Amino acid sequence: MSTETVAETIERESMPCDVVVIGGGVAGLSAAIRLKQIDENLEVVVLEKGSEIGAHILSGAVVDPKALNELFPEWRDMGCPMAETPVTDNWHWVLTEGKQYSMPHLIMPPFLSNKGCYTGSLGNMTRWLGEQAEALGVMVFPGFPAADVIIGEDGAVAGVITQDMGVAADGSHKPDFQPGMEIHAKYTLFAEGARGNLTKKMKARFDLEADCQPQIYGLGIKELWDIPADKHVPGRVIHTQGWPLSESESWGGGFLYHQANGQVALGFVTALDYANPYVSPYQEFQRWKTHPAIREYLEGGKRVAYGARAINEGGWQSVPKLAFPGGALIGCAAGFVNVPRIKGSHTAMKSGMLAAESVAAAISAGKEKTELMEYDSAVRSSWIADELKLVQNAEPAVAKFGEDFGTIVAGIDMWMRYLKIGLPIAMKHEPDYEHLRRADLYSPIAYPKPDGELTFDRLTNVAFSFTNHAEDQRNHLKVCDLDLQRESELGEYAGPSNRYCPAGVYEWIIEEGKEPKFQINSQNCVHCKTCDIKDPNQNIEWTTPEGGGGPNYPNM
Question: Measuring CA to CA, which residue among 525, 545, 551 is closest to residue 472?
Answer without folding.
Answer: 545
